[in-house]
């Protein structure tokens, strides 16, 4: 017996197929990181682990704000696929690939001042700083591969080649684990070995990804598009879209960093409790983000082929799934706090009163899951300005005033209120702008990259805002 859906919901099997592979590729990453930590944690000196963790946080910040390369590529590619525009699909990947290559080389050239700036604001022991610099200086050489992999992943996601996304994730993370063992344990390169392993695994992933690209895209076809790749207007318009996403990412990262920093100022116990609560949030994000990737791909595809009648059903299904995930995680913490947090630590003093902050965690999980889905939805429509504006307002109106109050009164409850307001205001603002996207024609939100009019269409997309 086969299930049948109304025509507006006939995408549901496709949705769950994409969602499953996206979530699968997402959860492989923390497993690989866990193994790397285990290798470093078994070395004779703890400063190797601390140094890699420190440098890893700095690099994660850098690469998170540059993840607009993945987001922008997925949006433009999905819309081109919806229009059945093969040259537009290629241009989306090539233009963003060019930007990724330039940024990657810039990171290599600027790795010394970037490292000096990053480590100068952190007060750590000299041996920890030395280990951090060793990891940072070697891992930075992988920047071009990391950023080009962002583009490849976005390009494959936009074309619904999610099996390849999973394959690349498996290859990259398996290689990282094997190389970690070789360089850290066997060759005893410690922190530097972890950096070399990370960079090398990214280049291996890139080679595998390019192999699959070359299998289906003839070189002659790429050469024919060379002139359009270097079109200044097209590059400027793509940069505008990516720049809006960059600002949005920067605001989100700064909010999270501020939340963690202010929590640390309230004492070790409060900081540890917040860290455990945020671990639950982070675990839920791996699943919700996979749903967001799926939403982004389908929203872009529907927009590209003019199937705007399916946008509202897509938003409903995606938000519903995100709420389900958040309530499962939040409900488990609310009903079984000792069991859940007891798995993460055996320090009774940390989990003794952690239940008083669980209501805040549940509220944040719910609002953040919806934000993540709607972020993917608007990304699929290539409305980078929407993400930028929503996050800037949510930070300025919601998070910042409450954060100032949290510092003044030294209250962790008010700090969690600030984090909740950031997500709640973002959720409401995204929701308020949903109805206009369901209209059959929304000219000022269109993103079109037909082969002969790439620059004009891209320029129109962002400059009309």
Low confidence ranges: 441-465
Instruction: Give helix and strand order, one letter per element, not per position.
Output: HHHHHHHHHHHHHHHHHHHH
Largest sheet: none
The dominant shape is globular
Count, helices: 20
Number of distinct beta strands = 0
Radius of gyration: 22 Å
Helix content: over 70%
Cα-to-Cα separation, first versus last residue: 49 Å
Q: What is the domain tally?
A: 2
Beta-strand content estimate: under 5%
Content-based structural category: mainly alpha
Mean pLDDT metric = 89
Transmembrane segments: 20-40, 46-69, 89-114, 134-157, 164-186, 192-213, 234-257, 269-293, 314-337, 357-378, 390-407, 413-432
Protein name: Probable multidrug resistance protein NorM
InterPro entries: DinF-like, MATE_fam, MATE_MdtK
Membrane topology: Multi-pass membrane protein
In short:
With 465 residues, the chain is an all-alpha fold.
Would you mind describing this structure in some detail?
Keywords: Membrane, Transmembrane, Transmembrane helix, Transport. The protein is mainly alpha-helical and 465 residues long. It has 2 domains: 10-230, no CATH class; 245-465, no CATH class. Helices cover 82% and strands 0% of the residues. The chain is globular.
Write the layout of secondary structure elements.
Layout: H1 12-41, H2 47-65, H3 68-82, H4 86-109, H5 111-120, H6 126-139, H7 143-158, H8 162-186, H9 190-216, H10 219-224, H11 226-229, H12 232-264, H13 268-304, H14 311-335, H15 337-342, H16 348-351, H17 358-380, H18 384-409, H19 412-437, H20 454-463
Helix pairs in contact: 1-8, 1-13, 2-6, 2-9, 3-4, 3-7, 3-12, 3-13, 4-7, 5-6, 6-9, 7-9, 8-9, 12-18, 12-19, 12-20, 13-14, 13-17, 14-17, 17-19, 18-19
